[in-house]
Here is the input.
Amino acid sequence: MPTVQIYDTTLRDGAQGEGISLSVADKIKIALKLDEMGFHYIEGGWPGSNPKDSQFFKEIATCTLSNAKIAAFGSTRKLGIAVEQDANLKAILAAGAPVATIFGKSWDFQVTEALKTTLAENLAMIEQSIAYLKSKHLEVIYDAEHFFDGYKANRDYALATIQAAQRGGADLVALCDTNGGIMAYEVQQIIADVQTVLEIPLGIHAHNDCEMAVANSMMAVRAGVTQVQGTINGFGERCGNANLCSIIPNLAFKYQLESIPQDKLARLTEMSRYVNEIANVNPNPAQPYVGNSAFAHKGGIHVNAILKNAATYEHLPPEQVGNRRRVLVSELSGTANLLYKFQEKGVGFKPQSAAGRQLLAAVKQMENQGYQFEAAEGSLELLMRKAFNGYTAPFALENMRVMIEMKNDQPIYAEAVIKLKVKDKQVHTAAGGNGPVNAMDNALRKALEEVYPVVKQMKLNDYKVRVLDEKSATEALVRVLIATGDGRRSWNTVGVSTNIIEASWQALADGMAYGLLGEEVEN
Here is the structure.
């Protein structure tokens, strides 16, 4: 099977995206994960441009890599400076990486306006820089910056720049859509023309300003390029780079071409989330292949069909990329949605039973009131078990009082006094907090911990409030979503009320009850 080289630039081009900041330790972790996944090239950064990138090359040199080659990025020599004296080229050599990736100008407009030099001098800068790096026994990849725009403005000169790279000894020329404005049909036509004047392999480096980066990369492969450059999750400047988490499975499953090893494809979702976590970026749930919603089904007709055959509404099994199928329950659901969820949770259920229809009607009515069960599967499962599985709640609220004290120039203080029925015991206790929700949470935990010690392991991971009818101002209906975890798993629960304290209590109580569901606890 033909192989397409995957060149990752998350650590350099991806790190230039807004809101992305990677430490040296972060970059090392990502590089090791990419190597483990079988990536061919990892662009570590621009040595000499900042201390962080220079330190990365020192530290990565002490690591043992199994698959990837580390590339140091930089530009051609500066105007009027000999290659032997150029600080950028010296820094690339000092980095000690086996691969040098340098960029140069392909667009005559960029040469005259940005570099402020002649077209002939630019050709010399490209050829001499590559020849110098090759003389130092490096593999050299030439990134032809703004190539597609340059080609459209002045075909002959754009082709002359990459011919200069070939004369210099470049091992591969990557054609760059630096401004992200090219269309897929143009990519195919231009690459076909490039292949008439160039003998060395080609790569593609696409940006996503027109939402075309993945499409342009795939079209370039179809046209004959053998290397695709991109980033994990499409990180990058402006609208980002070509998303390798889409390109890699597209190559494997749509083109039947190998890139990373086949046995690594099932870890693609894991890798995507790993990089998001390190970069402290909220994942895009709608991201193809690896997003949490990529194989999520909500409409009742869709779910009814996938219960019979998942291929009716999925272009490939989610397990092939390490993702999973999710069926959502909402006001758009049919009995098939509930049937799937009950089978998933191991709860006995007859979809056409009176109880089944009642539960579905209740869910739809609650969604109409503002509940959102697709984001709160913990609350949904409790509803399901109450309806069909003889579920007994681990505790019940008898009454609660929440007090708030505010004084000038002093922190706010809240206290919750709570009375619960826990199994056959009545528990009456109180706890303080820095706000009413914190006080309720502390009081609930205090009341439960003696009977259910496992509660000590449960932590509130996230708390979100959304106003559902802002026109009602402070009388508005609010929805509270709470994420809870115990170090092994996490779950979401929901509460809705015109009283934020009541909505918070509903979500908190469900969070604790769901956490206790199925736990083996000791009295």
